[in-house]
Amino acid sequence: MAKSDKRKQSLYFPEDMLNEITAEATRQDRSLSWIVQKAWKIARKDIMLYPSVNEPPEDEETS
């Protein structure tokens, strides 16, 4: 079994979003960290489809 890397990292969320995450963590009796990690694992495939800020935009006429 792989060893878990537990590095501390500060993340900043808009207040409304943090309130929603906190409410969901409370509902599930889980930590905020657990909720954010699960959300990332679920969403990362979709997020990887977003273009990088360094990629030139696609020309809409050639697409």
User: Alpha-carbon distance between the termini?
Assistant: 45 Å
Radius of gyration: 17 Å
Main pleated sheet: none
Helix content: 40-55%
Query: What is the global morphology?
Result: extended
From the helix content, strand content and strand pairing, which structural class follows? mainly alpha
Low-confidence stretches: none
The strand count comes to: 0
Strand content: under 5%
Question: Number of helical segments?
Answer: 2
- Mean of all residue-level pLDDT scores: 89
Provide the succession of SSEs. HH
Structure characterization notes:
This protein is mainly alpha-helical and 63 residues long. 48% of the residues lie in helices and 0% in strands. Helix 1 crosses helix 2.
Summarize the structure in short.
Helix content is about 50%, strand content about 0%. With about 60 residues, the chain is mostly helical.
Structural features:
single chain, 63 residues, mainly alpha, 48% helix, 0% strand, extended
Secondary-structure blueprint of this entry?
Blueprint: H1 15-28, H2 32-47
Helix pairs in contact: 1-2
